Amino acid sequence: MWTKHPPNCMSERESKPRGPYDELRAELRETDLFASIGAVLSWDQETMLPDRGTGLRAEQLALLSQVVHERRTSERFGALLAESEADESLRDDELARANLREIRRSYDQAIKLPSSLVREIAETTTLSIHAWRGAREKSDFSAFAPWLEKVVGLDRAKAECLATEDAPDLYDALLDQYEPGADTAELVAVFTDLRKRLAPLIHDVTGAARQRSDRVHRIEVPIEAQKAFNAKVAARVGFDFEAGRLDTSTHPFCQGVGPGDTRLTTRYREDGFFDALSSTLHETGHGLYEQGLPKDRYLGEPLGDPVSLGIHESQSRLWENLVGRSREFWKWALPEAQREFSPALDDVALEEVYGAMNLVQPNLIRVDSDEATYNLHIMLRFDLERAMLSGDLAVADLPAAWNDRIKTDLGLDVPDDRRGCLQDVHWSMGSIGYFPTYTLGNLYAAQLWLRIQSDLPDLPDSIAAGDFTPLLAWLRREIHVHGRRYTAPELCERATGAPLSADAFMNSLEGKLRPLYAA
Ligand code: ZN
Predict the structure, then answer these.
(1) Residue 33, Cβ neighbours under 10 Å: how many?
(2) What distance in angstroms lies between residue 313's CA and the mean position of ligand 1's atoms?
(3) pTM for the whole thing?
(4) Tell me, what CATH number does 501's domain have?
(5) What sign does the CA torsion over 162, 168, 170, 176 have?
(6) Centroid of ligand 1 to alpha carbon of 426 (angstroms)
(7) Model confidence over 376-431: pLDDT tens digits?
(8) For residue 398, how far is its CA from the centre of ligand 1 (angstroms)?
(9) Catalytic site positions
(10) Is 254 helix (H, G, I), strand (E, B) or coil?
(11) What is the residue range of 453's domain?
(12) Cβ–Cβ contacts within 10 Å for residue 125, how many?
């Protein structure tokens, strides 16, 4: 027979009075159980949910968001937080102080949002995602426009609640939800530096006399065989399949449900083996971070949570780009793949794969873009979403503004909105302020990589031998284990010895691409 709480354990618990900080932690843990139910429902919505189940799912998620929000903003919770902050016995407990600093931060933001607004956002965005999906399929912007109007309006209402007299900028208020402490002016400065070096590099490389072959991107490999191989690589780099899954979805993602449950998805095409593996490595990077966070000890507490989306994305980009597009990785992975898929890849050489994994070719689609042009996609979205939020750009004018920018920045003509402003899910989710974290992730990843290379001089050899344990151990120690103990800029300084800049990213990209495209 199995009982949850053996009687002796219960009495022991009851006999020991708990302070406000313990009660606060217990409250956070319980609230997180509700939030994790929402995470399972969201995963299901992306992978399994029948079309007609959308209405019910919208109501379920809306109710859960409201419950979570009300628990996080209750009077009792506020009182426990204040008592914990005043608790002298915690004054020298550095972990508790960091935890309380972040709990306070989240609480002060949450109480600014009326629970009716939180509920309305959850319900509207679930329906809006569904509408976006249909509109995107038919490339019919007019079917999505009314939803986008609503969602931008809700984002604006939310930003107005969150903005303060000291920090009145509406976009900053939204950005802060994804990248705590970041602000628009700082991003504009980093992005301007980045563009200054990126634009000439892209120009030189795309105009170079020597171009790399994309033949390998047309080789067909049966999807079932790819699935087995992708799972094998995810496990090899360290993803724990007893505490996670890898499934298929149209848009790959990673959902951290809780300790012991991290869910990844990827996507396959017969002629897309190399793309699928990139996307699997990307999501696995997110998954390794989720599995490395100390959630067992700190469920629902900041100490068990990811720092920011930029740091989360740095983990995925590091595995996708810095590992997965390196010569060393393919020294190990190509013979493995050749054995698995024989004879499909028999005549493929290491240099051919390396060149094809590092092709630079402006693409209409963000998620299919190379490491260099990708960031131009982000800057474009960053500018357009700020303009929509401020009202400078009317939703109805979005397709024209989008198409103009794609022409100016990438030199491409957008043939339809499906491959234009309807390609991403984010705006339908009300996630204005999310996009810049992708580029921050690229920059953080490159800066971490520089430090990793000096800390682990044998890394190229171990990657070429298919041994990823030293790299994962470094990430666990320097990034994962800390949860939100440090802010993103602090974590960056601690791990790399310098504040974030575009230099490491540009140096690494130029160092790789210029020789690849040299005559
Ligand atoms: Zn990602």
Answers:
(1) 12
(2) 5
(3) 0.94
(4) 1.10.1370.30
(5) negative
(6) 12
(7) 999 999 999 999 999 999 999 999 999 999 999 999 999 999 999 999 999 999 99
(8) 25
(9) 283
(10) strand
(11) 1-519
(12) 25
